[in-house]
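We emphasize that the prediction below concerns an isolated chain of 371 residues; any contacts that depend on oligomerization or on bound cofactors are therefore not represented. The input was used exactly as deposited, without trimming of termini.
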Amino acid sequence: MAHDHIGNPPPEILKQLVITAAERMTGVVIGADANAHHTIWGSSDINERGVEPTFIIAGRKEVLDITLTIENTDLEIKDWRVLGEHSFSDHRYIQFYINLQCPVEKPYRNYRNTNWSRYRTNLLNLLPLYPIEEVETPQSLDNVVETFTKACNIALDRSCPLKSQRGKKKPLWWSEEISDLRKSSRNLFNKAKRSNLNTDWDIYKVSLKIYKNEIKRAKTRSWKAFCESVEGCQGIARFRRILSKKPSNLVYLKDEVNGWTHSSEESAALLLNIHFPDSDIPNNLGINQGFTCDSSVVNNIVTRRKIKWAIDSFLPYKSPDLDGIIPAQLHEARDISCNWLTPIFKGCLSLGHIPEKWKLTKAETKPPPQL
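Result of the prediction step, given as a token string:
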């Protein structure tokens, strides 16, 4: 709604928004710098009504900012007011409350603060060194996986309990110098507002410019330091996620010989052949079709040494799947993990069965990328 915009307000995109919201019975709140130089908003001539100005510069205070809401909406706006605190702009903050049920704050767990000594102790108390139940049937395999998963989750919960978010953390680029500049700028703004002298407004503008320039420099330094610290696949992947507007999730894997895999079975076979190259498993392995292995082949494929190597190949704080287990749990209790994972993986190959808990996924798979 700029004053020099061609055409009468409101713009066409805003009209369409309101029409669509009315059709869908959806509430709309519009906070606008409407440049509404009209007495109906309390601008200039009728400030005696007690309306707080929303735009303040040297020698001039205007009511330019308005808040609109669609009729017949479920939104209940209350306590609308102009805040007195400095916004570091010509416009002031407008605060109002919407009477809606707020979402429950989700607790979080910082895995890096885990007491791993306590975790190992708890896991030893919850689990025997080896599975008591023999892995001879698909049901027994599911039971062993369920027991191991549950014990890992309970031990982690006791050694790294969930926490609630407390306040908002300062960004990495924030510093004491910036904090002092912000405080100084606010004080100068309040002084200029009270005195309304041009000299005070000039001093405030200089202070505000220094504050904003320091923020820009701090952000630039922080971004440069992050870019220079990127090393390895993990950092590059994170860097790509930050810069990408349309991130794509890799679902299928690329074989150096045959190209991209086209099914989850081929992906599983490729992973098995890469991680266990000494095995005699064919490349066209069909795990979901009841494929089984001879015990001698299974014992050759799955060994404690290979299980330990596979555990150590993962970065410790990768995000958990639906079972809630992160690689660090397997790292910190390596002996117990190997004692349980060895019969579990042997059972998977000998029975041709994937535990039901491992079949759960967070999202559906997507078709392979087109090259």
